[in-house]
Amino acid sequence: MSIYVGNLSYTVTQDDLTKVFSDYGTVKRVQLPTDRETGRARGFGFVEMESSAAEDAAIEALDGAEWMGRVMKVNKARPREEKSTRSGGGNWGKNSGGYSRDY
Fold first, then answer.
1. A Gene Ontology molecular-function term (predicted)?
2. Which member of 5, 20, 28, 81 has the lowest number of beta carbons within 10 Å of its beta carbon?
């Protein structure tokens, strides 16, 4: 399981998050998603810790804590939702719209 960390400063680094969370246990991985176009941090991240007890301790201590001038939102990350494929919508390539050829 991983921890969602929201409302982060846009200047936060993976090392910054690792240092903060390591007070509660061993940090296995930190992810800071970035904007595709600008490359800038998006203001949230994910932290994976070695044990669920360490995750629970970090969530309890850090949710609502002020850090780097912002109040963090820290909770268990929800599983990523599958993006559905587009279906329906339009008749592209089908001979069923607009004009008919009645000769």
1. RNA binding
2. 81
- Residues 63 and 41: their CA atoms lie apart, in Å, by 20
CB atoms within 10 A of CB 56: 16
Three-state SS sequence of 47-63: EEECCHHHHHHHHHHHC
Distance CA 56, CA 99 (A): 63
Rg over CA atoms, the chain: 22
- DSSP β-ladder status, 73-76 and 3-6: antiparallel
- pLDDT one digit per residue (tens) for the chain, 103 residues: 799 999 999 999 999 999 999 999 999 999 999 999 998 889 999 999 999 999 999 999 999 999 999 999 999 998 877 776 655 555 555 555 555 555 5
